[in-house]
């Protein structure tokens, strides 16, 4: 499987509770933090929920 680099580009202030928890489970939470995860359908669903707060590199 391929890896995805996920970078948080916007603040979680103003996001609802579910979006904040999704960022936390992705190990994000601060602007400009970058993490790598395996590309899975579950991960894609989490990214879809917070797509306005993050950028993705394949």
SS summary, helix count: 2
> What summary fits the major beta sheet?
3 strands, antiparallel
Compressed to H and E, one letter per element, the order equals EHEHE
In the CATH hierarchy, what is the superfamily?
Answer: Ribosomal protein L30/L7
Polypeptide structure, described:
The mean pLDDT is 96. The protein is globular and about 35 Å long. The chain has 58 residues and is an alpha+beta fold. It contains 2 helices and 3 strands; from the N terminus they run βαβαβ. The protein has a 3-stranded antiparallel β-sheet, with no helix packed on it. The chain has helices at 17-25, 41-49, and strands at 3-8, 34-38, 54-57.
Can you give keywords for this protein?
globular, alpha+beta, 31% helix, three-stranded antiparallel β-sheet, 58 residues, Ribosomal Protein L30, Chain: A, 2 helices
Short description:
The protein is of the alpha+beta class and 58 residues long. It has two helices and three strands; from the N terminus they run E-H-E-H-E.
